[in-house]
Amino acid sequence: MNRIVIALLATALFLPGAAFAQFGQAAPVEVDQARLVAMAPTMQVAGTVLSRSDAFLSAEVEGRLLEIAEVGERFAADDVLARIEDTRLQLRAEELEAEISSVQARLKFLDAELARYQSLAESNLASRTQIDQTRSERDVAQSGLRVARSRLAQVADQIERTRIRAPFPGVVAQRLVQAGERVATGTQIMRIYNPNDLEVVARAPLSYYRFVQTGDELAVRVGEDVIPAPLRTLVSQGTEQSHVFELRLTMQENLPVGQAVRVTIPTADVREVLAVPRDALVLRGDGASVYVIDAENTARRVSVAVGIGSENMIEVRGAIQPGDRVVIRGNERLRAGQEVQVIEGGAEPAASA
């Protein structure tokens, strides 16, 4: 006999709400509160995850491409990603270095000559003309030395530009030429981007421009996940053909560049509404309703009209007040006037003797 009673009690714990009422037991439910929240109607617009650091690197000198980084290769800022042949420039640099040495030697000779003529002039053994001519030749040699050094610096700069360096850390996304090809000045070599410096770019109808502001935190939906992202900037791009504005949101999550997302934006001013969790709604043939739990833990069914929603909360209008306890779990089988047992976190109610 005891075994039969225990079996019946164990079975009752797993019966739906109607069965609990039949056995005279309270149905276990989870509850939340109806509350006043600031909310606005929203819409979702398409967006794309992009890198804020995305660039095409080009050749700055002409020559044959000797090396180029592989697609997918990661690099740090200032790393060499490609190298152009610099043989001709190196030979020109050696030529200018020799020219500088020659000018320096002549300048040293002219300085010595000028000093000697000035010494002889004190004894009237050298004319003023000889001194002026030597000084003039020395000044010309000094100018020639500065010109040669400037030319050498220009060649050194060109040699440095044969090494294409990364302006920021990132990854190689695309190679536009291959090693061995000859490139001209301005030829695009590769595309790179920084996968750790992301933003979401979306476009929305211009009529909603006034409802968003820089700094607002908007919801970005990626599949089933919702990620909050601050609005960094927005720019009106309306034309006669497309009446839209652009939103750019800072993205901290590690998402692939090019990922399609949905951005939720407000379409009207924010207003205070009475809202309940979406799980509190019970949709049946006669409309939407919410079960409210009174002080005696009895369920009362309240018909409601739904309004705007924001993520997990939705506006309701009906005989419901802020602070009312509403059922969010176990409401599918409830009946009006049924006694309930409030549980937390989905815990099973304790079995009564």
Structure description:
This protein has 353 residues and is α+β, with helices and mostly antiparallel strands. It has three domains: 2-40 and 271-342, conserved putative lor/sdh protein from methanococcus maripaludis s2 fold, CATH 2.40.420; 42-53 and 197-266, Efflux pump adaptor protein, beta barrel domain (Elongation Factor Tu (Ef-tu), domain 3, Beta Barrel); 86-161. It has helices at residues 2-12, 17-22, 87-121, 128-161, and strands at 27-33, 35-39, 42-51, 54-58, 63-68, 74-75, 80-84, 163-165, 170-175, 182-183, 188-193, 198-205, 217-222, 225-236, 244-251, 260-266, 271-277, 282-284, 287-293, 299-310, 313-318, 325-329, 340-342. The strands form four sheets. Strands 1, 2, 17, 18, 19, 20, 21, 22 and 23 form a nine-stranded mixed β-sheet that branches. Helix 3 (87-121) runs antiparallel to helix 4.
Main sheet: strands, sense, barrel:
9 strands, mixed
First-to-last CA distance: 15 Å
Q: Could you give the count of β-strands?
A: 23
- What's the CATH class of the largest domain, please? Mainly Beta
Nearest-integer average pLDDT: 86
Order of helices and strands: HHEEEEEEEHHEEEEEEEEEEEEEEEE
Radius of gyration: 40 Å
Q: What name does the CATH topology of the largest domain carry? A: conserved putative lor/sdh protein from methanococcus maripaludis s2 fold
* Total individual domains: 3
Low-confidence stretches: 4-23, 346-353
Q: Specify the structural class.
A: alpha+beta
DSSP helical segment count: 4
